[in-house]
């Protein structure tokens, strides 16, 4: 009996266990089983995937991308440009490593070109009309690249055509103060000014000159500013080093606004309304032409007058004279004029963006955007193809993961290969104008990597302070090329750093206050958190204002691979860092944007503003208290939000709670926008990061208005200071209100 | 053995079953049990709750709300206004029927008042200086209400002070064309014009007059326009009927822009920058004063000249003469002048909004906003207290459900009791300026119920076409007062209807193109889907341009309860309909906004535009194809979205998919905004619904630009037509792009 009972109990237990197992695992609960999407919506970024991405980013692939992209010159809208369009499409539509979808978007935009049949000329002409000297029309060839027929003659895009002829004067950098000073020593009417690159924007050198009666401007790159003083191409400059050969000329866009000039605030489609060309603002009013320092030396060394001030002297082995127009009486150019014959003309042509997307799995209606322009002035190995090569390697790795079914981002990723950036950020700007609302409502962030590698010393990055944390996190996971076990973050901190009240000694993230690349429309016009990064110089080793072959016919694959980044390891480090940031923005459950870091920057701006303006404003009965209160509100709101994120178990709460927080983080920069605050600055709407002329690192509208009021003393200008104080205070209060508990 | 086996099998089966049951129900699955929030996030609107709401809305409560709200005059910023602030706060903070939270928000705004110690005067003065007639200073009292010391003297808010004196002329409605015509018959310099209300905005009567040298303006309500011709207070007008007594005077705001005039596009906080008063635009340049038709008759009946045109004649038993300034030679006023002594002055005072919220359970960061102003000119029983009484009844019913724990909306509901609307929609506008980004990003819709009941015949509603469906649905569930079993929808269709290509015969939903009430800043400035509704007249029974006691001292509880809505059943119908719409917007899983109905309106606008403009534009080489393509894109996108909603099982999909669709629906009106398109129209940014002067029911920027170009013939004006065509085409394409699949 005992045995039978024992058997019964054992069998019974076994059957019960089987039953329990069947009941638990074998039968789906009808009412409360978790829907399949519950796990998906709470998934966070996968650190293993990040590691896989980092390991797959390949330097040789980047090198080969660059080789392909730089085969021919690809200035915007030329056949070479079309070749790169096709190349991008092919890569992004590749069935094994491509994106979900890729396509082209065209805009018909206002460009400016020299006449291939009538090249621009710069000559020295004596009183009898004999030409004593003619500046080089094209750069000196060292390799086949420079001899490519598609190399465009150096020119100043948007310079008007014309044939000014007059006595030459040296005008330093063509700043307003330079012409003012020069004007005190000599009557400038009817003269031609020769200026160095630097100090002010390209177009400003002509815009500033015109009121003094100057009729034409030359611009060149001084060896002091670019070559650490080196001059000779027999052994010093490219092809012997990265330095600029004497005949190298920086091309560029000579205009002060970004985007297509004929269709302000509208996408430049075929039938879009275009303003009359005569209504365009911010173009050079007089002809201007860039030349090489070889020719500049010939002109400057013969100039009459007294020695110009010390800070006007450059790198030539001669005294830079000023004060008398024209050449020395002892010169072979004595009594001669300098003549500019400029045949540029404007053309309205179709320029293409190439777009590619990876569709997000959980939040397809949230976009992380990554972009760079595709067009160059000549072969553009560094500018912009280093960035494009990096972008192509990132898309190859991610595309393969998608095509293999191994990964799909939480949010959608949009890649943009912008057209006509060199003519003034045109492709990216038209894109933001066409998709204004869609991007305003959905874009989480924009990552810009234009020139990926200026030099191979260190990372440099600029962006919203809210992005600091994710940039640091990514940089810590990437090893610094050539630095042993040091990572990109630690290496960066060695070169650029600051002491944060919160974080102590950290790398210095720059501010995106200008319009130097395609991030401009994203941050300034749309208020989308943006960043820009590259590898760059060791400033203790060079004073070059930019890499010396910039915008010249020497910016080639040969140059890049020999002198900028042999082995392409800095490219690789940038691809890894930028891709890591991209992945974190796309995949993190909670967006990796930190508003307390934003508060720190606002507090820094506030301190500067109070130090500089509070006393004089009190005298005008204008109170800075609203601004102080606003910054304090923002600080408080951002810390509450941080605390909410820290204290919540967001992976196990409704996905709408995460979305609410993410929307707060995403939209904080939108709150800083004011479409009416900067009426004279095209496309600038961001009240914190708009460009400023005042040269003070604080709220730009306030700084500019204060500078104006202080200089004019007009009560209407002091009113304008008060206006900007209200604008920025209310913008910051609005942002704080976005971050505060929602109702 | 068999028995043993049988027992074994039975026991085994029983144990197995028990095991299965334990396993299935007794043990929580670790990995895949549904989190508690899964059910909440997919909940749709509860029809039982709607029925409960409808049954609880009580007409007597509304009546008592009105009685309380109209105890004293409550013009903005007066002690009576403060009394209503306290009343709203008390009701919304009631522990049993109040909201989650209620508070006050103050703005310091620019207002205009007469001087209580020096009343404005209108007199007839003979050449010797004797006063032959003085217009009434205050309306004739019939009850105690009219004798309340807080009844403000009739005045034209924002009229400048001044003492113009001159010959009187009759100028019809003070339209531009009226003055033009009058100017052909008489030299208007130095005259005083008397005008009827109607035809143009109040301020325009003075703005249009000034260029002709007119120095002062009177305005009155003609019995023809308001009283169906009735005149006598012995038996015809109030207190015998709803008609305006002879001494009744419509007060009003005489300015053309909305919002605080000193702080354009900024919230009017204590320390906000204020523009100089001299920079204010859109105010009367010369003194203007409203009078009763009793006094107007005395003046007009004595006027010299010939009979004015037929359409200038009004309801008086006399000929309205024009053509000679001043009075008839046979009149006792012969050779006399009319003198205006206006002592209005501007004051910058604190005005309050009272805000209340019910926090949303699932999507607290989505707002459905319901509002009405609180301030009146005098007791304001109909304008605005009928609307406020309705709002208070809605908040009582919803507040109680919340406090009882029976209900909490999916989305947050914000109630706004706006201040200083009568002075130009000031409280609501400042609110939108202060919370610009927050509201732009989160507001689903705005419901405005200002005057809830003009008369008791039928519902009338205006709003975004996307809201048509939810308004219809709600109106069908409410029975029409006094119409047996007919519902509000069917009754409405009898009075106002149209034939829709999609829906056949339906009630006609109006467009919100003006700035007549507090919806203006929500739709025009912020692009938030908005609607406005009320019960109104049977137009076959009266021609009154508005309910006759409008803005007079007769708009009292007595008037409203006797002559506008005895029994308050129309108020009840409005409360039920508006509350039903509110509940559906707040609780529906998928927002009840329909973009195909929007497409229908765009197609109607397009047809009108093509009919009127295509030929003349072709002659100017301006193509309308981009506009046609844009409307077609919008139609296609809206139908795809409809189809997606129809074909998806959204209750069982990730809540982020519903959110994505809801964001598309919510944000479509934002895409129509352009902050630069209407530079001369303050606060108007919506390219579809902005106000228009052209009088054509089509895209407003296009219509106005076309009218200007046609009249001037200037090529720059034709350019402007092309500009507006591009603006509206790209706005519609942008909206279509928002509705299209997101990536």
From TrEMBL, chains A, B:
Record text on subunit structure and interactions: Homodimer.
> Which regions span the lipid bilayer?
5-27
All copies of domain Transferrin receptor-like dimerisation, residue ranges: 622-739
Location of the protein in the cell: Apical cell membrane
Q: Tell me the ranges covered by the Peptidase M28 domain, including all copies.
A: 353-561
Q: Name one GO biological process term.
A: proteolysis
Where is each PA domain found?
A: 165-253
Cite a GO CC annotation: apical plasma membrane
Lineage at the top is:
Eukaryota, Metazoa, Chordata, Craniata, Vertebrata
Its domain of life? Eukaryota
Tell me if Transport is a UniProt keyword of this record: no
**Protein name (database record):** Aminopeptidase NAALADL1
Topology versus the membrane = Single-pass type II membrane protein
Which Pfam families does UniProt cross-reference here? PA, Peptidase_M28, TFR_dimer
Q: Name one GO molecular function term.
A: carboxypeptidase activity
Family (UniProt): Belongs to the peptidase M28 family. M28B subfamily.
């Amino acid at each position: 009996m005992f045995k039978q009972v024992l058997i019964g109990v054992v069998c019974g237990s076994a059957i019960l266990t089987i039953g329990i197992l069947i009941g638990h695992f074998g039968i789906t609960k009808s009412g409360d089983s978790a829907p399949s999407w519950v796990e998906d919506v709470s998934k966070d970024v996968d650190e293993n995937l990040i590691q896989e991405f980092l390991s797959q980013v390949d330097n040789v692939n980047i090198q080969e991308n660059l080789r392909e992209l730089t085969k021919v010159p690809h200035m915007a809208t030329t056949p070479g440009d079309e070749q790169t369009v096709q190349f991008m499409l092919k890569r992004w539509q590749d069935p094994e490593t491509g994106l979900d979808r890729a396509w082209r978007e065209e805009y018909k935009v206002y460009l400016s070109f020299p006449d291939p049949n009538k090249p621009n000329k710069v000559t020295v002409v004596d009183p009898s009309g004999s030409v004593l000297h003619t500046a080089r029309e094209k750069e000196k060839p060292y390799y086949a690249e420079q001899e490519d027929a598609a190399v465009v003659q150096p020119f100043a895009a948007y310079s008007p055509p014309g044939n000014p002829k007059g006595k030459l004067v040296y005008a330093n950098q063509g700043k307003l103060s330079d012409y003012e000073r020069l004007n005190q020593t000599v009557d400038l009417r009817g003269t031609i000014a020769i200026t160095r690159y630097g100090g002010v924007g390209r177009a400003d050198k002509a815009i500033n000159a015109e009121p003094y009666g100057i009729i034409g401007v030359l611009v060149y790159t001084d060896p002091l500013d670019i070559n650490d003083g080196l001059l000779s191409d027999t052994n010093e400059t490219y092809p012997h080093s990265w330095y600029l050969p004497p005949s190298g000329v920086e091309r560029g866009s000579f205009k002060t606004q970004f985007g297509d000039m004929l269709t302000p605030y509208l996408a430049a489609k075929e039938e879009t309304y275009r303003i009359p060309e005569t209504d365009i603002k911010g173009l050079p009013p007089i002809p201007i032409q860039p030349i090489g320092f070889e020719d500049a030396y010939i002109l400057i060394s013969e100039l009459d007058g007294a020695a110009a001030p010390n800070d006007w002297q450059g790198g030539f082995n001669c005294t830079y004279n000023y004060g008398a127009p024209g050449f020395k009486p002892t010169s072979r150019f004595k009594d001669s004029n300098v003549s500019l014959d400029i045949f540029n003309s404007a053309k309205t042509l179709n320029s293409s963006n190439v777009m590619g997307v990876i569709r997000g799995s959980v939040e397809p209606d949230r976009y992380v955007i990554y972009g760079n322009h595709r067009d160059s002035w000549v072969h553009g190995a560094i500018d912009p193809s280093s960035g494009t090569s990096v972008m192509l390697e990132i898309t190859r790795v991610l595309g393969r993961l998608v095509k293999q079914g191994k990964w799909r981002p939480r949010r959608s990723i949009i890649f943009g290969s912008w057209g006509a950036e060199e003519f003034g950020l045109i492709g990216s700007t038209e894109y933001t104008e066409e998709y204004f609302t869609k991007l305003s409502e959905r874009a989480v962030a924009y990552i810009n990597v234009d020139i990926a590698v200026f030099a191979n010393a260190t990372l440099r990055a600029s962006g919203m302070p809210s992005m600091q944390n994710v940039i640091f996190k990514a940089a810590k996971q990437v090893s610094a090329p050539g630095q042993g076990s040091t990572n990109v973050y630690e290496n960066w901190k060695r070169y650029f750093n600051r002491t944060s009240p919160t974080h102590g000694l950290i790398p210095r993230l720059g501010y995106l206050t200008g319009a130097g690349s395609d991030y401009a429309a994203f941050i300034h016009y749309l208020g989308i958190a943006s960043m820009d990064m590259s590898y760059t110089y060791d400033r203790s080793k060079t004073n070059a204002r930019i890499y010396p072959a910039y915008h010249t016919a020497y910016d080639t694959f040969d140059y890049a691979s020999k002198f900028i980044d042999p082995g392409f390891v800095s490219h690789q480090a940038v691809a890894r860092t930028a891709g890591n940031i991209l992945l974190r923005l796309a995949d993190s459950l909670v967006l990796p944007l930190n508003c307390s870091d934003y508060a720190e920057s606002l507090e820094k701006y506030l301190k500067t503003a109070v130090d500089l303006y509070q006393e004089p404003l009190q005298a005008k009965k204008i109170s800075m208290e609203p601004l102080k209160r606003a910054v304090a509100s923002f600080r408080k709101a951002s810390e509450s939000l941080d605390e909410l994120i820290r204290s919540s178990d967001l992976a196990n709460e409704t996905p709408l709670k995460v979305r609410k927080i993410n929307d707060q983080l995403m939209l904080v920069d939108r709150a800083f926008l004011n479409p009416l605050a900067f009426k004279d600055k095209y496309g600038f709407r961001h009240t914190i990061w708009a460009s400023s002329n005042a040269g003070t690192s604080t709220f730009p509208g306030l700084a500019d208005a204060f500078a104006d009021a202080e200089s004019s003393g007009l009560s209407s200008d002091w009113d304008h200071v008060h206006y900007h104080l209200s604008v920025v205070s209310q913008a910051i209060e609005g942002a704080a209100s976005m971050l505060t508990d929602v109702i």
